[in-house]
Design brief:
The protein is α+β, with helices and mostly antiparallel strands and 242 residues long. Helix content is 35%, strand content 32%. Strands 1, 2, 3, 4, 5 and 6 form a six-stranded mixed β-sheet that branches. It is globular and about 40 Å long.
Length: 242
């Protein structure tokens, strides 16, 4: 039975990975210039994703949590699909970490892969924001992957209620998750997401090979470009609404 479950999980991941791979080839992911454009588009969509979540009273992140956080990961338009008992989710997003002076550093690109098993049906696009209590887990992504709910704890985050939002919310989990979904997805599933460092997209955006998280955060002037500046500004705005 265990072998069957593992086979179904791998199949789900292959389905989603194949879909993302085909889409990437179709818009020139493996051309450096085109990949850099795609990276900047993801930065722009990450700003929109933050707006979607912060404008939703049922999902809005308390500004005090953003202010306390040392890291943020944003996946705009994460795609989830399932048929019968197998499914999966895949996305490309960005990760930001606070510098030691409290400002936000340059982002680097990460990928999300997820397989699921259970009675499921539907397709859905979701904007996902993960708020990290500590920076170390994100910084380590350049060298290792992170299993959400395994290597680090993940919990649904407390929600801001506009002007009545409390300012004394504290981190009770290593990561708080927020999402805003579009589409239909029904059923129950058992799932675990895996975060990995997206080397090819980082190399394309920053224009150098073998670039790592330390170099992005500590050696490249922040913000690296206008898209990054826009993203940092919107996060700072939402973190100072108390």
């Amino acid at each position: 039975m265990k072998a069957l479950l593992n086979t179904l999980l791998v199949t789900a991941l292959i389905i989603v990975s194949g879909t993302l791979f085909a889409a990437s080839v179709g818009d020139g992911m493996y051309n450096d210039d085109e990949s850099a454009k795609k990276a900047n588009k993801t930065l722009h969509k990450s700003v929109i994703a933050m707006d979607h979540i912060m404008d939703d009273p049922d999902n809005s992140i308390p500004p005090s949590l953003i202010e306390q956080s040392e890291g943020i990961v944003i996946f705009p338009d994460a795609f989830k699909i399932a048929f019968g008992v197998v499914g999966g989710q895949g996305a490309r997003g960005i990760a930001l970490v606070r510098q030691y002076d409290g400002s936000w550093g340059n982002p680097f690109f990460v990928s999300l892969g997820e397989g699921s098993f259970g009675l499921q049906l539907g397709a859905q696009k979701t904007d996902i924001v993960l708020i990290f209590k500590d920076r170390d887990a994100i910084m380590d992504l350049g060298e290792t992957e992170i299993t959400l709910g395994g290597d680090v704890g993940v919990a649904a985050g407390p929600v801001s209620k506009g002007a009545s939002a409390t300012t004394d919310i504290k981190f009770d989990s290593e990561i708080y998750s927020y999402c805003s979904s579009r589409g239909l997805f029904a059923g129950m599933s058992f799932k675990g997401g895996v975060l990995t460092y997206n080397e090819s997209v980082n190399e394309s955006l920053y224009g150098m090979e073998d670039i790592n998280t330390d170099y992005i955060f500590h050696e490249i002037e922040t913000p690296y470009n206008n898209r990054i500046n826009d993203l940092i500004e919107v996060i700072e705005i939402y973190g100072n609404e108390n």
